[in-house]
Amino acid sequence: MLGGFKTLAEEKKQGFFAKLCSIFAYRPPEHDTFVLPETGDEESCRTAPEKIEKSDLEYYLDQEDLKKAAAEKEKNEKEDKDNVKDDVEVGEEKEIKNQTRASLFRRAKSLKKPGKERQNAAGDKKSESDQGAKEETGISPDINISRDLIKEELNIPTSVDVVVRDFKLNGKVDAFIVFIDGMADRDVINNFILRQLMNRILYDKYDGGSIFEYIKENVLSVNQVTDLTDYDSAVTQALFGLTILFIDGCKKCLAIETSGFEKRGIEKPTTEAVIRGSQESFTENLKTSMIQIRRIIKNKNLINEFLTIGSADRSGASIMYIRGITNPSLVKEVKRRLKSIRTDFAMGDGAIEQFIEDNPWGIMPQVINTERPDQVASHLMQGRVAILSESAPFALVVPVTLASMLSSPEDYYLRWQFGTFLRLVRIFALLIAILLPALYISLVNFHQEMIPTELLVSIASSREAVPFPSIIEILLMEGAFELIREAGLRVPGIIGTTLGIIGALILGQAAVAANIVSPILIIIVAVTALGNFAIPSYSLAFVARLIRFGFIALGATLGFFGMSAGLVIAGALGASAKSFGVPFFAPFWPRTKDSGRFLIRYPVWELERRADEVNALNKIRQPKISRGWVKGEPPSGEKE
């Protein structure tokens, strides 16, 4: 009995101690050493200590205290649930916003990288980046996302010349503009964009409709504004000198024409100079070059289409043609080749020429390059297509033929007799530039019987003290002349011209005095160089320089037989060469009705038809009787 009371007292004492320990987050020994039930239920294992603790509290606390504690606990649990719910909702919103922003960044970055080509259902190859540009680059209405993405794409603040200007429309709506300092005109931006957008008086008539359309139609006072719906176009237009306007809440942005950078003025042509005719050349500014052509051809059907070339550089190019004259299939083919160029950087018109030519391994020129606007205008009126590129003072014209490369704008500024004579001189110059050195070597080495006796004795006496054979002589002088030509181009200003003249004279005289070469060979090389300079096309002249060395080798080894073989090979190369499907030797081969134009420059009043090799839509250039006054016809637009 006594032992029982003692045990009860100890249990009460131990229970009281457990109550104090529960307050200070301490478990009594029997709770810490709780034995798992035989069922092995883990849930009952976790809840058992709570049941024991609850029974101890009931033992020592009153019912009122239990009710108060339960109510307070329920209240605290409810508040905790509400707080957790709010935190979850806020976290979900932040997560969605972050995912959206990250997705936009990934989409924009994918545009910069050429994607892997994949085959679609139609069988056309498209890059993943191209498809992303069409599907996933819509502008976000959240201006903060747009600002962050534009800064990321244009490398702000690392690129110090890219400017982002934040402001408010009507003091309420957030907006910002982005432009490249130096390529955009600051005066236009300050006076006609920012001043207009931040002038609250201009918003008095705003009725609460689309702020985007209201600004476009009533606020901006610039001549050219374009809607853009994706970030890729916005970045591209900014790189071309335009100012891009973003408005909060709008899924579009505005590209405002503000291009205004320093450019070179119009100067005289250097590679295609003429005595009579236009004295202006193209510049590196694309718009200026287009205006020069439009000033010559005042035709409403003169079409000018703008294209971008390259994935990273995004070089600007323009194709020009006359609708109703140029064959649509030719225009389509030119567009296809330009749009198919896949490169990070296209270095001017020379790189574009190599990308679009039919046979990149062929030696014959397949594109005309000219610096004269009147030359381009003449080709456009014949039914050809012109390609102008940014930062290049030359235009490309396709298709090309040998006859077109031997013609000069000066031919049509002069009377037909003079033009015909000059054309025949150029054809003769082309033959001299290619064949004269090889002809000399063949005669001296293999066919001395064809040389008159007096001339043969003169040549033999002049070569008596020369220790080298003819092939070595001519290669030495040709190499020396090429060095002088290249050095004259690299030396600046008038010094280069002086170097070319004096250097050739001194070098030739010294070589003859030292008995390294014969005097007759100096004459041969000089006449060959003059023939090369008389060729109006720089590309064709370069081809003549290269082919000349091949003929020299054939003439030195096989004589006239080697030269004949060389002519056959050169003819085969020229006959197989095509420019956008047009044979290089047309209209001479294959022969057409206009084959006579290859040698003779017809009078302007007999040029009734356009060149038939380009297959123009409108083949009639002028009526059969173009000089109406001969028949007593009244002037155009007047009646008798």
Mean pLDDT: 80
Strand fraction: 5-15%
**Biggest β-sheet strands, sense, barrel:** 5 strands, antiparallel
Which shape, going by the Cα principal axes?
Answer: elongated
Alpha-carbon distance between the two ends:
153 Å
Structural class: alpha+beta
Q: Nearest-angstrom radius of gyration?
A: 43 Å
**Biggest sheet, strands in spatial order?**
3-4-6-7-5
Find the count of extended strands (DSSP E, 2+ residues).
14
Instruction: Give the low-pLDDT segments.
Output: 1-13, 20-61, 111-136
- By DSSP (H or I, 4+ residues per run), the number of helices equals 22
- How much helical structure, as a percent, in the residues? 40-55%
Overview of the molecule:
The protein has 640 residues and is an alpha+beta fold. It has 22 helices and 14 strands. The protein has a 5-stranded antiparallel sheet with strand order 3-4-6-7-5, with helices on one face. A hairpin with a 2-residue loop joins β13 (578-579) and β14. The longest helix is centred in the first third of the chain and has 50 residues, at 63-112.
Keywords:
640 residues; 5-stranded antiparallel beta sheet; 22 helices; disordered N terminus
